[in-house]
Amino acid sequence: xxxxxxxxxxxxxxxxxxxxxxxxxxxxxxxxxxxxxxxxxxxxxxxxxxxxxxxxxxxxxxxxxxxxxxxxxxxxxxxxxxxxxxxxxxxxxxxxxxxxxxxxxxxxxxxxxxxxxxxxxxxxxxxxxxxxxxxxxxxxxxxxxxxxxxxxxxxxxxxxxxxxxxxxxxxxxxxxxxxxxxxxxxxxxxxxxxxxxxxxxxxxxxxxxxxxxxxxxxxxxxxxxxxxxxxxxxxxxxxxxxxxxxxxxxxxxxxxxxxxxxxxxxxxxxxxxxxxxxxxxxxxxxxxxxxxxxxxxxxxxxxxxxxxxxxxxxxxxxxxxxxxxxxxxxxxxxxxxxxxxxxxxxxxxxxxxxxxxxxxxxxxxxxxxxxxxxxxxxxxxxxxxxxxxxxxxxxxxxxxxxxxxxxxxxxxxxxxxxxxxxxxxxxxxxxxxxxxxxxxxxxxxxxxxxxxxxxxxxxxxxxxxxxxxxxxxxxxxxxxxxxxxxxxxxxxxxx
Length: 495
Known about the structure:
The chain is an all-alpha fold. It has helices spanning about 1-25, 30-50, 75-100, 105-125, 130-145, 155-185, 190-195, 205-220, 230-235, 240-265, 270-290, 295-320, 320-350, 365, 370-380, 390-400, 405-430, 445-465, 465-485, 485-495, and strands spanning about 55-60, 70-75.
């Protein structure tokens, strides 16, 4: 099991540097290697979940024990995140086999994708706050390049805006880490949690660091009012990268990192909880309202990413067992159905050459696989049973009522209804509306693109149908990891 932890970072890093060589030797070598790597890591993540070790599992790089060496942590929460990261990346990679044929320098795309995957896995496994930052930057730099991969003016502009705001976010996070190191004399999260438990929690320094982290990770996760970069970056990127950004990147280097630090290192308090709850509620509402007037398929989906992240933050910010579980569950569900929606949008653009909903239509007959998978994803994000999105939203709403937050619960219900209307608009204009004959001869997406979309659509249904065992065996243990707070890391240090 210890070796598996190393593989999650080492294998994609090896692939990133081996791809140029293999691509020269074999015509389809970079496609084959990338799919094999992501399939292998997905299998490893599933193996950990179905054959769990005695959690938590702490791995010290080079046998340098904490707090002096680099430490990785495998617990129910990081194992859960490994599944989300690697399974979604596998489907994105398979989709890319056909989709990225329209771009030059395909091997460069796979190199950057593998670097992004290594960084995401590193963020999930890191128990050292500086190495978490290093892996976070690997993800961010790869993302900047991938957003601009098409090198058109729109893409380069979006990437530049993303890079500027992302760099500001990284600076806030790094400054916060510097202040924490000055206060605690350690970068190890276990040791840092222990040191902070012995200091004044209401000190001005910790308040300042908390503000830096909320701003930095808020920018990374595109919470309102830190969301300005996302509506440009997501539509401009190639469809597989839009799926990665919305499905994984903003959650892993934003929400996951924020939750891990505030719960297991700082220990969540009422002030932070109230602030995060307010940011989540505002993001929910503002995101869906901004999405209503959008006619660009991918830009509409980008604004819905902001809205759905609001659900995740509202659930986790409650700090209750059910609230945290609902937030974590929705994080996974959103990764699945929003990745699928961006792949659907990519297939429509691939076939028709447009993302404008007003210029689309009549695709239900010519693109049946894209049509029904888009319908499944739309029903999932709108929270229609029995699809996965229904259960996670229901858990969050129940948790809000139980925590005596009726305003936020009502807001979540209202946003869900508006979301349903927004995605009915997509289905109508793209697939069912009758228009001129110009789209009658459109062909369905190529086989690997269809396979990825169908796989994610099946996941939306399977997670919804088998909600109860999935929630009990995977989601609740992950939620308990955050619920345990700072004492969880102190216990690991003592062990």
